[in-house]
Design brief:
By secondary structure, this protein is α/β, with parallel strands linked by helices. The chain has helices at 28-52, 65-74, 90-96, 109-116, 124-129, 141-157, 178-196, 212-223, 248-256, 271-279, 296-305, 313-318, 330-335, 354-364, 369-381, 387-412, and strands spanning 77-83, 160-167, 199-207, 230-236, 260-265, 285-288, 309-311, 340-342. The chain folds into 2 domains: 5-52, no CATH class; 65-401, TIM Barrel (Alpha-Beta Barrel), CATH 3.20.20. Helix 7 (178-196) links the parallel strand 2 and strand 3 (199-207). Bound molecules: zinc ion.
């Protein structure tokens, strides 16, 4: 290339040709050209900032706990890791029990909560027993429709615009088939989305203790409903004793049918479980991944490949996967550039909500409001929606986020 090669200024401001520093001190003419080029490179972003009205990010520093909770409740949110089984309202269990001639261990909401909610110091074994007294709600289409509807309603009440629900559809097949479970859940979810003007998708979950044959049947039922709201396949359960590799054929099948894949890993077992989920079973996202930091090489791989984590701080705390929230690695992963999202996992078993998870990360992980907004938007960016719906969701979230910011700037006078 000949001619005025010194006019070629790249984005990193390196100057080629006669103004190169290797060729001596630049002349006045040369400095002028450098200056003009710098102005040209900076002009567009500067003009954009002026036109759009650039402002400091809204800060919540110094606001009291109640106001912080109100702000984060109001913030538009996404949730992409929530199990229907762990999100059944205690009130609903009490109301439904007589319909199915079920005797519960308590007949008041508070009494029932003491049986179905996790308390500090309890173990994973205790967690699994929490479901014993209300498994009947998963055996009937009517109750499944109701609890699915109510989960979307619970998330919408705290300004969650988009939710990805998940359920393991093998309950009591002699009472209700896998197809029957999935169809009822889809009906309840869709009805709630229509009534509440929110969006949702269903992830079908496979338990690691299943045979490969049973898991394949679940995957086939999921694929058969991809045009009716099923957007992904998940693997959950005993991570330590049932390595992900056992299900390679099932996830090969899902991938071949373009069904998205997320896998619980790096929770009960170490980082090698996460590596298997990604490398062998095509996981696009990882459920939890809290133990990723134990393997710096794998952490760099997640950083490089931008593999999203569905993080659930209070779930991990209550099941003793982490010792406390200040040491929770969400902020570390976020600042390393790994896409992280915030989720409840099992909201009624843990007696938590999504707003509380955001408050916890603001208080204990030092995340700013701008960072929490980014984490909420990440849920839309890494959602399993088809491309056009995902783009529309991101636009809707950004618009709602701008309205939220304007509302709170006015209220806080900042
Ligand atoms: Zn989970």
């Amino acid at each position: 290339m000949g001619g005025n090669s010194y006019l070629q200024v790249g984005p990193d401001f390196r100057v080629q040709g006669s103004c190169s520093p290797e060729q001596g001190v630049p002349s006045v003419e040369c400095e002028l050209l450098l200056c003009m080029n710098a102005i040209r490179v900076l002009a567009l972003p500067l003009l954009s900032l002026l036109l759009l009205g650039w402002r400091e990010p809204l800060s919540v520093q110094g606001v009291d706990q109640a106001t912080l909770t109100e702000i984060l409740h109001d913030m538009p949110k996404t949730e992409i890791h929530t199990h229907i089984e762990g999100a059944v309202r205690p009130e609903t269990i009490l109301e439904l029990a007589p319909d199915y001639q079920v005797t519960l261990p308590a007949n008041t909401v508070d009494g029932l909560k003491s049986h179905i909610q996790m308390r500090p110091g309890e173990t994973l074994l205790d967690f699994l027993k929490k479901f014993d007294c209300f498994r009947f709600v998963f055996d009937h289409p009517e109750s499944l429709r109701r609890i699915s509807y109510e989960l979307v309603e619970d998330t919408a009440r705290e300004n969650v615009i988009y939710t990805e629900l998940r359920i393991n559809p093998i309950k009591h097949p002699e009472l209700l088939s896998v197809d029957g479970v999935l169809d009822a859940v889809i009906e309840g979810m869709d009805q709630a989305c229509r009534d509440l003007q929110v969006e949702a998708g269903l992830i079908v979950s496979i338990n690691r203790s299943y045979s490969v044959e049973s898991a394949m049947q679940v995957a086939q039922a999921a694929v058969a409903r991809m045009d009716r709201g099923v957007i992904g396949l998940d693997l959950a359960g005993d991570e330590a004793h049932h390595p992900v590799e056992k299900f390679k054929a099932v996830f090969d099948y899902a991938q071949a049918h373009h069904l998205h894949i997320t896998i619980h890993a790096g929770e009960a077992a170490g980082p090698q479980s996460m590596a298997g989920a990604v490398e062998v079973c095509h996981a696009e996202r990882i459920g939890h991944g809290v133990r990723l930091s134990e393997d710096p090489v794998l952490e760099r791989m997640f950083q490089r490949r931008k593999i999203p984590l569905e993080m659930c701080p209070n779930s991990n705390l209550l099941i003793n996967v982490v010792k406390d929230l200040p040491s929770y690695p969400l902020a570390r992963y976020y600042h390393a550039g790994i896409p992280v999202t915030l989720n409840t996992d099992d909201r009624h078993i843990f007696d938590i909500n999504l707003t509380g998870e955001y408050v916890a990360m603001a208080r204990h992980n030092g995340l700013t409001l701008a960072e929490l907004e980014d984490i909420s938007l990440t849920g839309a960016r890494v959602s399993f929606l088809p491309a056009a719906r995902k783009a529309a969701l991101i636009r809707r979230m950004e618009k709602r986020m701008a309205e939220f910011e304007a509302r709170w700037r006015a209220r806080l006078g900042r």
